Structure formats: structure tokens, C-alpha cells
Amino acid sequence: MPFSIQLVNFFTESIYRLGLWLFRYRLSHSEIETLQNLSRYYQVLKPEHQKEFRGKLSYILTTKKFIPRGGLTEITSEMKILIGATIVQVTFGLPRVSLSHFSKILVYPDRYISTISQAYHRGEVNPRLGIIVLSWPCFIEGFIDETDGINLGIHEVAHALKLENRIRSNDEFNFLNPQLWRSYEELAQREMNLIQTGGSDFFRKRGAENEHEFFAVALENFFERPEQFKAKKPELYSVLVNLLIQDPIFLKSARRNSS
Description:
By secondary structure, the protein is α/β, with parallel strands linked by helices. It has two domains: 12-145, Cyclin A, domain 1; 176-259, Collagenase (Catalytic Domain), CATH 3.40.390.10. The protein has helices at residues 3-22, 29-38, 40-43, 47-63, 77-91, 136-144, 152-164, 178-196, 211-224, 226-232, 234-244, 248-258; strands at 65-68, 104-108, 112-113, 120-121, 123-126, 131-135. The strands form two sheets. The protein has a four-stranded mixed β-sheet with strand order 1-2-6-5. A two-stranded antiparallel ribbon has the order 3-4.
């Protein structure tokens, strides 16, 4: 690409991002309270990291369009905050990543029939249309029990993250370290084989369906059951820590030690 075109693209992108910054979504006091009361991940962050979290959340809420579907009449501020916070949580160690390709988030009032599979779904990701789809009741279940390793929001955001890394048409392409990803793939295949043969006592069976499902299931456990994950699968846990550039166990212990 000629340098002049690169320069124009750079300034165009800079002006666009400046506009997003100037007109970004402003979190209200009640929305920050929602975040503080319902996001355990946010709760354990140090004050300076909570500020970073809110800044990234504001950017994500500015750049995503939330669309009610299936008879849902309204997307409330609580819905936006909790869904946006899940995206921030999964990508928090990757400051430049906001899943820009997935600009639309569809929310249903219950399980819905997928236009892709023609079956009932709790959630899905459509990379062709840049859409993340969620059933709100199923999403909330992940917040009710944050220690069972099942969290629809994290699951679908994990799918989007994996796809975002391979979509060449956006500026967030190839952000996951390739060497670490190869190490992850070897360990993931080993775990999938264990699940298939009944030799795994940690990951649920869905993780054996394919590589995409295993990554989503692994991230659910990474964030919800990090201590058990590290104890049972230390090598895989370590690779994910380095791949996502964050350690949920460290975040928890750092907050406890500073209290």
C-alpha cells in the first residue's frame, strides 16, 4: 500500500477514534454501582485498574449497538453494563482489543431459534454479520453462580475473541501470540481427547465438540474457577495466563493483600 494512502488511513482512523473519545458513552453513578454490585471481576480490581476497566467499558458501549429481539422491548442500562463488562473482562489484558468486528449485540428474552442451525440456542456468534447473540435469562445465570464454570457471556465472548484474532479485515487481527497459541492448541487437543475418552474430571463434555467449543469452555473455567483450573491443569492454565495477559488468581490475591 502506498505511503500516502497509509497516511490518509492513519489520520482517518485517528479522527474516528478521537470522535469516539469525545462522544463516548458516559457511565452514570447508578451504572457504576451496578458494575460494583454485580461484577465480581470488577470488585477485586485495584482502584486504578477499576478506572481502566470503566474507560474500556465506556469505549465498548460507545462502539457496540445493542438490539432487542424476540419480543424484548428494551435493552436496559443494566443489560448493557453487564454484557459490556463481560467483554472487558475477557479482553482486559489486551488493551487494544475491543472485538471491533462484532459491532452488534442481539439480546433475546429467552432461548431462541437460530437462523443458522434452526435449533433453540442460548447464544451464538455470527462472524459474517459481526453479531453476538445472547439469551438474557441464560446470560444472567452466569452471574448467579460464578463458580460452576458455566457462563454464557464469557462463552460467547470467547468465541468472538478467537474469531476476531483471525479476521484479517480489521485492525485487531493476530493479537494473540502465535507461539503461545500453538502451545495452547497442543494442550487443548490433549484435553479434548481426555474428555472424549472419559478421562477428564474438570471440563464439561461440550468442550470436546470442537476446538472452538473447547476454547469457550476453557475460558469459562479460567475466569470462574481459576484456582481449581490451575491445580488440575497447571500447564494449560499458565498458557492461557500468558495468552490473555492476565491472571484471575493474581487479581484476587492482589486485592486481598491490599485490603
